[in-house]
């Protein structure tokens, strides 16, 4: 079995297949250098829902529900902590128009049948005292969670190797040259070179750190500031992750990043003024692998090749469900996959 791509999705699939007793080789010249390194790690079956992506919601819910057990099993298998924490999401707005957008989104959130609680401004600030007094309220999703994606990747790498998977730091262009009965393409933004319709959507993410004794947000805060979305995720280590911009400029990591940093800091400080007192530790620019309809590509490409790519904003959240689905396909233990994610769906529509 060959897995092309050693991001978190590829390693999770490798780990699961190797535990079945299959011989697994993972190819990647720089494991963990893609979206896994940049992601914030929100496990949000509700607040990641977007209009036009309704077909994703059941898969998101399945994966979110699987994460607690998956995290425990991964920590036990790898010996690494993954930063898993119960982290309710508070979605708030600063202006009337922001609140109107949240109300519009809340109608979609309620369709997920998850626990979604509307809040006024005062109730929002009671849950998260660091919020600006200008907050106009929003919704609380108490059952959301979060992980540290970098820790998850390190744990998956260790667990896959302990299970018997071999990691080869090699670049693959010719799938025909691989000595494997089955090949899984978990190549993220590199999937286009294998004929899959994946484009990079760029995002800038900030990592800050609170000093000793400085207060940090207890909840994951997502907000709209004059129509602009921003999120703030706290780690137990005191790290605060702020993101994320979204634009399409190919694989350019340079142009416009100063403006992105300015915007993210301004929006987040307007939501939580205390952020101005933190230390800016890191600015990271990454690329989300994205299909034309923003849905993943999961399923057979041909008799030998299976796609597991195009997860867009949801790569970390969808690790457990993707790994289970693709491992079953690769080992013949199952043949089902979400038809909305069929990697051949765009060819059928041509």
From TrEMBL:
This protein's pathway: Cofactor biosynthesis; thiamine diphosphate biosynthesis
MF GO annotations: flavin adenine dinucleotide binding; glycine oxidase activity
Enzyme class label: oxidoreductase
Database matches in InterPro entries: D-isomer_DH_CS1, FAD-dep_OxRdtase, FAD/NAD-bd_sf, Gly_oxidase_ThiO
Keyword flag Transport: no
GO annotation, biological process: thiamine biosynthetic process; thiamine diphosphate biosynthetic process
Domain FAD dependent oxidoreductase span(s) in chain numbering: 2-329
GO cellular component entries: cytoplasm
Catalytic activity field: glycine + O2 + H2O = glyoxylate + H2O2 + NH4(+)
Record keywords, A-Z: Oxidoreductase, Thiamine biosynthesis
Pfam families from the UniProt entry: DAO (PF01266)
Its EC number(s): 1.4.3.19
UniProt-recorded name of the protein: glycine oxidase
Organism of derivation: Glycomyces buryatensis
The encoding gene: thiO
């Amino acid at each position: 079995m060959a897995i092309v791509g050693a991001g978190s999705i590829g390693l999770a699939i490798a780990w699961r297949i190797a535990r079945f007793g299959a011989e697994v080789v993972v190819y990647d010249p720089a494991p963990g250098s893609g979206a896994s390194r940049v992601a914030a790690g929100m496990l949000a079956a509700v607040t990641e829902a977007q209009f036009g992506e309704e077909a994703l919601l059941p898969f998101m819910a399945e994966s979110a529900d699987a994460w607690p057990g998956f995290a425990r099993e991964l920590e036990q298998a790898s010996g690494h902590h993954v930063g898993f924490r119960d982290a309710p999401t508070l979605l708030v707005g600063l202006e009337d128009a922001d609140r109107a957008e949240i109300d519009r989104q809340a109608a979609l959130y309620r369709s997920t049948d998850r626990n979604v609680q509307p809040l006024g401004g005062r109730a929002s600030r009671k849950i998260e005292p660091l919020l600006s007094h200008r907050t106009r309220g929003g919704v609380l999703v108490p059952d959301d969670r979060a992980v540290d994606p970098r820790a998850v990747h390190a744990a998956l790498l260790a667990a896959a190797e302990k299970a018997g998977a071999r990691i080869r730091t090699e670049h693959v262009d010719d799938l025909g040259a691989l000595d494997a009965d089955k090949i899984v393409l978990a190549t993220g933004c590199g999937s286009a070179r294998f004929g899959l319709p994946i484009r990079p959507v760029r995002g800038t993410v900030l990592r800050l750190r609170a000093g000793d004794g400085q207060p940090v947000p207890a909840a994951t805060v997502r907000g709209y500031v004059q129509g602009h979305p921003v999120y703030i995720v706290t780690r137990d280590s005191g790290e605060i992750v702020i993101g994320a911009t979204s634009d399409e400029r190919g694989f350019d990591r340079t142009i416009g990043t100063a403006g992105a940093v300015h915007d993210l800091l301004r929006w987040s400080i307007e939501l939580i003024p205390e952020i101005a007192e933190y230390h800016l530790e890191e600015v990271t620019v990454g690329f989300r692998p994205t299909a034309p309809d923003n849905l993943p590509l999961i399923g057979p490409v041909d008799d030998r090749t299976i796609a597991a790519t195009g997860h867009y904003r949801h790569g970390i959240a969808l690790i457990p469900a993707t790994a289970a689905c693709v491992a079953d396909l690769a080992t013949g233990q199952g043949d089902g996959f979400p038809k909305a994610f069929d990697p051949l769906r765009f060819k059928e529509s041509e």
